Amino acid sequence: MEMEPRCVHCGFGIKTLFVQYSPGNIRLMKCENCKEVADEYIECEIMIPLIDLILLKRKAYRHFLFNMLNQEIYTEGILWKTSFLFLMLDACGTLVLNRSQGDRCLSSSSFSSAWVCGKMLVHVFLGNLVFFYVLVVATRVLLRSSSKETRYKDLLLAILVSSYFKIFLLAMMVWEFPSSVIFIIDGFVLSSNAISLKVMTEATTIRCLGACFSAHVMKFLACQMLEVISSTSLRYFRINC
Ligand SMILES: [Zn+2]
Fold first, then answer.
1. How far is the CA of 202 from the centre of ligand 1 (A)?
2. How much distance in Å is there from the Cα of 146 to the middle of ligand 1?
3. Are residues 124 and 236 in the same domain?
């Protein structure tokens, strides 16, 4: 089921965003609630909403989440594609962190490559399982007073799309950056996630920030725990082999 388009200024539902008279000749509709043009991004080049997205403007989030992704291309496919991209970028982040912390104790044998790959996969899947579980629970607990019911599929899509800052992790695979840059990227992802959650649920900013912050912290703690377990098991393996 598709979500109905929304006014990018106030989030009010609207039947149609524009009326097309002939190819290239459209009239943008006004919002009944705030009397502004419901979505002026329709007439803009894609770069304009993208810049506003990076500037964390809520109206750009509404444009992408309600008026763009939920239209013709809003199918199961987009959820799978964004999930795959999200996990891939997360794997890049884990690899960069491993490289900077240096799994120095490992030699360049095939065992070490398999070990690093296995560790990365476990980190990515378990870390994100914890992340989304905590996010869903926190959304239920913290945002239960919010007026709008949000489907979990929409919530998942909002979080995946708003994690676009992770794309900078690709640059870190190519060029050397201090590992602290990963935490700066995480900070941007956290604020972007909170804004998309706010746009989706219409809850207060502090509650959305709280829900996203707890999910990010629990993911970090889960990854730290996995790191301790993996280094302990590696030591055990070395002693016994
Ligand atoms: Zn409006």
1. 14
2. 19
3. yes
